[in-house]
Amino acid sequence: MVQSLPEMPDKAGYFGEYGGQIIPPELKAVMDKISDAYEEVRKTQAFQDELQELYAYYVGRPSPVYYARRLTERQGGARIFLKREDLNHTGAHKINHCLGQALLARFMGKTKVLAETGAGQHGVALATACALVGIPCEIHMGVVDMKKERPNVTKMQILGATMVPVTRGTQTLKDAVDSAFDEYIKDPVNFLYAIGSAVGPHPFPKMVRDFQSIIGKEAREQFLAREKRLPDMVVACVGGGSNAIGMFTEFLPDEAVRLVGVEPAGKGLDTPDNAATMSLGRKGVLHGYRCYALQDENGNTLPVYSIASGLDYPGVGPQHCYLRDIGRVQYEAVTDDECLDAFLTLSRVEGIIPALESAHAVAYAMKVAKEMDPDKAILVNLSGRGDKDADFVAGKLAL
Is the CB of residue 247 less than 8 Å from the CB of residue 234? Predict the structure, then answer.
């Protein structure tokens, strides 16, 4: 057991040297009010009861842990298990923190909830949660991602969200974040920016982690009940890092469990077309917090790329940065080609179509399973389903 991991973040929102609130004083005051409101409401039994009831009867939790027998037999070596977050209402893990943030917005009396989205899963989940609690929702999305993820755009519109197409920059996730933040600072008193991952200024990395930690809590209990032991390895994809930190948190004290975050190598780490922040990034400041970020020699944020719209972010959550530095979590990168192979393999061998984001984690598990003994077990967080990606993949591969 690891005894040395401190309670994090600290009062200033730092995980070691990462995180914090690197923002103007007037915005810091707003963030502090959000933090105070979160700390107040999360300790109330009424809030916890409502959230747990929604998880059970609205989201459909607990999501099951599934033994991928045919995939295991195909790969050889270690057994591969999947934590089926793809079976949640709205099709991904994002609903876990969106419900929490929507309830917080209602508690604080906010008049509008804003968000960015890349793959659209956060946008769909937030539009769903806002419809449920009766608060207007505005989603900023890069036009490149809107074309790629058209099914999710349609869902957000059906759910009543106002869509804001983002045409600046690379017209993808980072630019959607910038656009949503610009709108948010017009009235931060009455608006709530519901950040879509474990990133941004404090308290968002902590808040999103707390809401997502239900994944790891369930998975650890389920795996122990089923296998009478813990998995040897836990794997999750990492862009901003919400699904991964949700899965990893409960396993952090278990030193024997190897934790692996898988980021997008895109067209290759030796090309500019990737979003491999942990592999190639340097310490810097992005969107109001300190983290590893992909930057040029002058400290300017680089354009990033991934076949998975939800992973093409130039930074990463501050807790991930800290866990990388202390060596508790290992971060690896998977290419587009490896991702597509895993996408099709899981679909055709297990009848499960994964999100392209999740397929990065599946690809890594497929690769390392062959190198491990058959008595070992890998648990993959299958963070979302691939309905949104099906047409794009079919067109790309001429299926």
Answer: yes
